Amino acid sequence: MAPSDFAKANIPELVAQLTTDEAIQLCAGVGFWHTHAIPRLGVPAIKVSDGPNGIRGNHFLMGTPAKCLPASTALGSTWDPALVYQVGLKLLAPEAKLRAASVILAPTCNIQRNPLGGRSFESFSEDSYLSGLITAAYINGVQAGGIGATVKHFVGNDKENDRMAYDSIMSQRALREVYLMPFMLAEKLAKPWAYMTAYNRLNGTHMSENPEILQKILRDEWKSEAMVMSDWFGVYSVDLSIKAGLDLEMPGVNKWRSLDLVNRSIGSRKLTQRVIKERAKKVLELVQKCAIGAPDILDGDGIERTLESDEDKELMRNVAAQSIVLLKNDNGLLPLNAAKLKKVAIIGGNAKAKILSGGGSAALRSSYFVSPYQGIVDALSSNPAVEVTYSEGARAYLTSPSLDDDLFTEDGLPGWTGSWHAHENDDSMSALPDPFKTERMDETRMFISTSSPKGITKRWTLKLRGHLLPREKDTPFEFGLLSAGRAKLFIDGDLLIDNWTRQRRGDAFFGCGSEEEYGTFNLKAGVTHQILVEFVNVRGPADGDEDEPVMDSNPGVRLGGAEVRDSDELLSEAVALAKEADLVIAVVGLNADWETEGNDRTTLALPGRTDELIEKVVAANPNTVVVTESGSSILMPWVNKVQALVHSWYLGNATGSAIADVLFGNVNPGGKLSLTFPNAEEHIPSFGHFHSENGQVRYAEDLFVGYKHFHHRNIKPLFAFGHGLSYTTFDLSDLQVSKPVVSASDVELTVSLQVTNTGSIAGSEVAQVYVTLPKTSVLTHPPLQLKGFAKVRLEPGKSEVVNITLDKYAVSYWEERFSTWVVEKGEYGLRVGPSSDQLALQASFTLDRGLEWRGL
Fold it and tell me: Is this entry keyworded Transcription (predicted)?
């Protein structure tokens, strides 16, 4: 029987036929990425794969080259659910099929409570409504392509430090109106096939064992049919998580749900066979959806493949460009005219760097990449007379830059040669002299995870040998080495860095890595220096932590390096180039070291001397365009001195092409900020109570998240939520509100307005509708809440009437005393405009009666 025949299986009959052991096996994964097969009953295994900005496949180490899409904050900034649907249908679902994956572990729709959160780039917005609609579009697109979506992290995972343990303490109103709302909208509008629980506690109980959320709300109240899985290693008990409604523990490595432990729990009457089979049934239902949605995956050979079509590349480039936000454009400096430029200086640490996305499980190996520098140079190629100069200006990296392009093997191929050595036995630290396996490896950041050779001993050694590309002149070069395990770096046979004998604990490789250790070596002109890194997957002792555990699931090693440069000289070089140019394009920002799963940022400031670089370059040449790259908010103390400012997020493979499209006017920017950029960290709503203190994170800002806080406290942000300029101009007028219709279970009214392109080129505008609840309410509510929006594209001089329908979600709040949604009768305010701080159109409407409701 073919695996796809499971599409026709009778699930209740299958559940009845399951032995207890088979049911237990279905409730936990196999390896890192698969569910359990039951061959006796024709139940196939299914494979899942990480998203959210692309489908990585099975391996972190030398993974299958993949499409890296714009980060979620970028997708949120399109304010275009129809476009995000196309991303899901035409890019993500086909990419999952190429990876032989039936389910993707995405999208993430947690709230950007604080931009310091390490995974803020993975979520769509600080606003629940925008996040919910973009999430639903993403899911609908993916699942229309026959691939399951897993909405995550359910719920309250809004920071990274202490993420396995901290307790998100919030009011029921905040939980319902802010943090559950994107999931609720996704369930209502898209019916995701799966949910993934968060690592953290919520009001005292870990999410993977939280029956209040998993059973009472998700299943009983929302009537969800989804399968619920844990985040990886996010299960902390046997019986509690099973009884709470967690169907699948992932991964199958070091799992709680072993046959022995679960059977012991059944024998001690902590669990029953019935509840085990209830959990197994949900897994079988997901497998059947996969068999129906993409039978070719289950019947396929399981080999991961890469395929790039011109159509795919064009869509990726368009999506990236549509997400870019034009923050400032004084004196019409943009768009640029390549034909009129004579000398362009490209400056900044991000201009040539390979920055695709934030770090962690979102990271993948890109099938191609266009840097901002290359994209700009390509755009300028139409003018053969233009001269382009470049300077890094200021170092922006946290860990030493990759050496992927600097090493080659004995055979002259890119990369280095890795020889895997088994040890004398599983407990030995002595590597055998003869290699267990030898292969060429073309990465210098190597998160090995579970990709060590099959059959090798539990402890093993990896020796990496390569040749460094020769330099044209004598060059002092600083190497950096970090590892999850122990590592040593030898240059020409001499030990340069010892990250083996004693270590300093760090955050790399999902919190298992060391701090980076450095060593400087003088590279000789024309000399091919020999590089050797020895790595063993056993962590070394450190001050305060003398344990030496085997890294059985998270081993990794990273070698980086850069030419030693004096920071003053770098700045002076950039300023000199700026003075000589008629235009400067400065590309600065963050990268996957600063914004990553596993740890939070400590500041909103740009790295190192970046701010000083911008100040000095702009002083030297006012014709400076600044392009910023980050996945969330950053500070810009120089903003009033800059004429043109473009925020590009993390844009994936097509980064440079998309940036150039906007800078040179091939694309008229239409992105709008999906989160507020504050003037100071102290202005963030959760300032002072964002960090885990004795395991508790108090959501003291309550309902006032993001722009709601800025309106409530009358604080002017750097750039407001929803802000985004265009190369044309628009007029919003003629606001009309229909008479509301209140039924026993819903409310309906229509907001209409006219949008006119008053400029000279085609462009897009987003009409944003914000609602104010009645002032007669006895409860406190945010002064303005986004409850509707519409994106419209118009030719110059053209107008379009936009109709936006509001329903009960636009006028409801959670009544904690009675555990119900409430719509009060009374007068509601309505404000409409192109951003949350420009709401010139105002109206009101009256509900002559209220209602209460539950469910969706």
Answer: no
**Using CA atoms, how far apart are residues 20 and 274, in angstroms rounded to an integer?**
9
Hey, what CATH topology would domain 407-563 get?
A: Jelly Rolls (2.60.120)
The span from the CA of 666 to the CA of 653, in Å, is 18
- Mean pLDDT score, 230-241: 98
Determine the straight-line distance between the first and last CA of the chain, rounded to whole angstroms: 40
Which superfamily, per CATH, for 730-853?
Immunoglobulins (2.60.40.10)
What CATH number does the domain located at 310-396+571-713 have?
3.40.50.1700
Q: With 90 as the cut, is the pLDDT of residue 762 above it? A: yes
Q: Which residues contact 308 (CB under 8 A, 6 or more apart)?
A: 67, 367, 368
DSSP E strands: which ranges in 161-301? 167-169, 194-197, 201-202, 205-206, 227-229
What angle in degrees, to the nearest 10, is found between the helix axes of 655-663 and 372-380? 50
Distance CA 649, CA 53 (A): 12
pLDDT digits (tens, 9 = 90+) for 680-729: 999 999 999 999 999 999 999 999 999 999 999 999 999 999 999 999 99
Q: What is the DSSP letter of 500?
A: S
pLDDT value of residue 778: 95
Which of 612, 524, 629 is CA-nearest to residue 567?
A: 612
Residue 137 DSSP one-character state: H
What positions carry a catalytic annotation?
231
Contact 562, 400 (CB under 8 A): yes
% the chain with pLDDT above 90: 99
Given pLDDT bands bounded at 50, 70 and 90, which one contains residue 51?
A: confident
Q: In this predicted model, what pLDDT tens digit does every residue of 466-515 receive, in sequence order?
A: 999 999 999 999 999 999 999 999 999 999 999 999 999 999 999 999 99
| Number of neighbouring beta carbons within 10 Å of residue 56 | 26
Question: Could you check whether 310-396+571-713 and 730-853 share the same CATH topology?
Answer: no
* Extents of the domains making up the chain: 1-44+189-293, 310-396+571-713, 407-563, 730-853
Angle, CA of 216, 218 and 223, to the nearest 5°:
100
Residues 114, 158 contacting (CB under 8 angstroms) = yes
Give me the pLDDT at residue 20, please.
Answer: 98
Taking the CB of residue 590, how many other CB atoms lie within 10 A of it? 27
* 560, 402 contact by CB (below 8 A): yes
What pLDDT was estimated at residue 1? Answer: 79
Half-sphere exposure of residue 557, counting CA atoms within 13 Å on the CB side?
25
Q: Which two tokens stand for residue 676?
A: 């507020």
The fold of 1-44+189-293 is TIM Barrel (3.20.20)
According to DSSP, the residues that pair with 417 across neighbouring strands are: 440, 465
